[in-house]
Amino acid sequence: MLTVERNRPMASSISPIKDNSIYTVRNFNLWYGADHALNDICMDIPTNKVTAIIGPSGCGKSTYIKALNRMVELVPSVKMTGSIDYNGQNIFNPKFKVEELRTSVGMVFQKPNPFPKSIYENVVYGPKIHGIKKKQILDEVVEKSLKGAALWDEVKDRLHENAFGLSGGQQQRLCIARCLAIEPDVILMDEPTSALDPISTLKVEELVQSLKKEYSIVIVTHNMQQAARISDNTAFFLNGEVIEYNKTDQIFSNPTDKRTEDYITGRFG
Ligand SMILES: Nc1ncnc2c1ncn2[C@@H]1O[C@H](COP(=O)(O)OP(=O)(O)OP(=O)(O)O)[C@@H](O)[C@H]1O
User: Ligand 1, from 28, 36, 59, 111: best to mutate by most atoms within 8 Å of Cβ?
Assistant: First the structure.
């Protein structure tokens, strides 16, 4: 189990938002070599809400969400202290099964990254890895996931065509469908619309809002309007710290920290 080092100044204390939390994060620190990228993060993720993470480039947003699914450990120089509990279990406990995170937490990246396969094969990729072979079940997964990602009507007659033939916005929704196919509880999104045109962006934003009925969503975004439009709660990160974490309305209408106000009003970042 990881322990907390106390040989450095404490960051601002952040009171967790009082909702059912799928993640409980306590005093979490992360270093890339000597670079202290996350500093004493205490930030819970509520269930069935959209949580936006905003902040200037390099403040640790991606690192934080990659810690939530233990992807960040793929970087060899990483060192961490503190705890991240997922459904009450510390994900860094040696007894914790990381495969559980792989099936419960899906991730959507900045650039759509479909596999060089058909639309159908992209969606069934995860379920097949988890041993589902029956065609009828896979067909159902494809329809349900593509409907969930608001893409079914656009692709139902071309399921066996290569995914690279889709537009960028459609490819991103396909990546969301691929994520839904593993039936996750959480979807982590790292700037999912930054490579998309305004209409595709709107479709993904509408999708995020409809998905929160069934999923807990964390979205990193540089787009203030997007965070304000689609999220329930927003965290403002700066230099690896959570400066403010509150209801989105509150953050955007009446931030308590001057640095949050300066950032959302475009004075820096
Ligand atoms: N693989 C890595 N190896 C070493 N340092 C890294 C690595 N990834 C990120 N960092 C460093 O950690 C800090 C936080 O980076 P991170 O990518 O989490 O920020 P971010 O807020 O997501 O930035 P952006 O908005 O530009 O994507 C930065 O100083 C960055 O240089």
Answer: 59
DSSP 94: T
Exposure class string for 42-60: b at 16+ Cβ within 10 A, else e:
bbbbbbbbbbbbbbeeebb
Just give the CATH number of 21-113+185-264. 3.40.50.300
Q: What digits encode the pLDDT tens for the residues 159-190?
A: 999 999 999 999 999 999 999 999 999 999 99
Model ipTM value: 0.98
pTM greater than the 0.80 cutoff: yes
- The rounded Å distance from CA 39 to ligand 1 centre is 13
Measure 166 CA to ligand 1 centroid, in angstroms: 30
Tell me the domain boundaries of the chain: 21-113+185-264
